[in-house]
Amino acid sequence: MDAKLLYDESISLRTRFLRYMIPSVVAMWVFSLYTMVDGIFVAKGVGETALAAVNISMPFINFIFAISLMFSTGASTIIAVHLGRKDIKSANQVFSMNTAVIVILSITIMALVHFNLDNIAYFLGATETTVEYVKNYLGIIALFNGFFIVSYSLEVIIKTDGFPAMATVGVIISAISNIILDYIFIMHFHWGVQGAAIATGLSQVFSTVFFLTHFLRKNSTLNFSKFKIDFHDIKKIMFIGFPDSTTELSCGIVVMLFNINITKYIGEQGVVYYSILNYVNTLILMTMMGIAQGMQPLVSFYFGAEKTENMKKLLKMALKAVVVAAIASVAICMVLPGFIVGLFIDPSETAVFSEAVRVLKIYSVSFLFMGFNVIISAFFVSVEKPSLATVISLGRGLVLVLAALFIMIAIAGGEGIWYSTILSEGVCMIIAFVILKMKINSVSDSIPAM
User: Fold this and answer.
1) How far is Cα 205 from Cα 223, in angstroms, rounded to an integer?
2) Cα 178 to Cα 217, 228, 275, distances in angstroms
3) Which residues of the chain have pLDDT under 70?
4) Per the domain annotation, does 289 fall within a domain?
5) pLDDT per residue as tens digits for the range 390-444
6) Residue 3 maps to a domain
7) What is the pLDDT at residue 114?
8) According to the model, what pLDDT value does residue 294 have?
9) Whole-number mean pLDDT of the chain?
């Protein structure tokens, strides 16, 4: 990908959007699909209890991903604004400082988890049946958490640097290595959930190395440089990245509370159904986030360049893209639910299989609303209005979904759990469009002075 893609006005805006969006979506698909493959190997090679344990562990992965999102989204937005002003020196300083900060944070997280593994496992909802699986998985993931955080941060920033296709290559490297190592460690060496965790961790090591080689080459605009820790910039990075981080962190909190309530009202078998829903939901959410990430660096660039109309056009393109993605997602879940569930559960287990198919069809309706919430939140992040993005992110990711969960349980018991996400995403979509309509014309007022 040409590093001058951001600047080249001879390329149409739509073409530039597609050149950013398509690699971003593909990267997110690859990430989601190899995460699903991870679950499939665990389910087929270890068992349904192990699959439930991995799902119980997912909030911790959401947490470390949320940390990376906060710093990568915040830093990439600031970097893109600097590039829009053609201030390469400041962009490099922010990039270098951000990388150093997340390395320090990852070491801290690793130490904290190591000394509190039992408490964390039970806090996440582990039972006597699943706790050893959870501890085995979490302990290894924590050792590799720095590579998770740094790899994703570099993946986001490499797009801002003008090389979105390379982000896709890095994710593909990670995905292929994870799938191969999953097969070797789980199916051949029989290392169980520990094998799955080691495979996932090593795959992040490979992608981190790949991304680092890009920023050490001369053809990249962004390079590592000398910097001073600037707490004002760190605060700004965290402030801008907070909405996206909140979305991911909220996912972890929601998964944890859903697991607890499913165990209470439906039983441990329900956690297996919810594990499958989570893998499918992750694929759809990552599709929407990929569209958002295709839009974000361009919107931030035009924000820095004071071109408001281009920003609004990009928003419309992204919203149209999520309409297509949403309709396709629901159609696939309605037409092929048996195929999707069969990847995790043997169809011969008739009762379990049929119930998983039924709840997948119900849950998939929420995909019709999800994308609009993700795009509108991402747009406000791109124009340095994180407070508005936070309202939407907290709404769809935490406040509304938990309110819907407890309301639907009160109305319909355990059955209501499967409908709660439809309610929360739909209500959040209405709120998001109201905010957008009220604030879209004020975006130009917040454009920074040159």
Assistant:
1) 20
2) 26, 36, 19
3) 1-10, 442-450
4) yes
5) 888 888 888 999 999 999 999 999 999 999 999 999 999 999 999 998 888 766 5
6) no
7) 94
8) 86
9) 89
In a domain, 108, yes or no: yes
Tokens 């992110």 correspond to: 393
- Give the structural domain span for 90: 13-440
Sequence-separated (6 or more) residues with CB below 8 Å from residue 248: 62, 65, 66, 69, 397
Position 109 scores a pLDDT of 97
What pLDDT score does 449 carry? 44
What is the pLDDT at residue 296? 87
**Quick check: is 446 in a domain?**
no
Predicted local distance difference test score (pLDDT) of residue 443: 63
pTM score > 0.70 for this model?
Answer: yes
The C-alpha atoms of residue 183 and residue 355 are separated, in whole angstroms, by 28
| Structure confidence at residue 6 (pLDDT) | 56
- Planar angle of CA 268, 272, 275, nearest 5 degrees: 130
Question: Within a 13 Å sphere around the CA of 55, how many CA atoms are in the beta-carbon half?
Answer: 36
Three-state SS annotation for the chain: CCCCCCCCCCCCHHHHHHHHHHHHHHHHHHHHHHHHHHHHHHHHHCCHHHHHHHHHHHHHHHHHHHHHHHHHHHHHHHHHHHHHCCCHHHHHHHHHHHHHHHHHHHHHHHHHHHCCHHHHHHHCCCCCCCHHHHHHHHHHHHHCHHHHHHHHHHHHHHHHCCCHHHHHHHHHHHHHHHHHHHHHHHHHCCCHHHHHHHHHHHHHHHHHHHHHHHHCCCCCCCCCCCCCCCHHHHHHHHHHHHHHHHHHHHHHHHHHHHHHHHHHHCCHHHHHHHHHHHHHHHHHHHHHHHHHHHHHHHHHHHHHCCCHHHHHHHHHHHHHHHHHHHHHHHHHHHHCHHHHHHCCCCCCCHHHHHHHHHHHHHHHCCHHHHHHHHHHHHHHHHCCCHHHHHHHHHHHHHHHHHHHHHHHHHHHHHHHHHHHHHHHHHHHHHHHHHHHHHHHHHHHHHCCCC
pLDDT for 201 equals: 95
Number of folded domains that form the chain:
1
One-letter amino acid at 292 equals: A
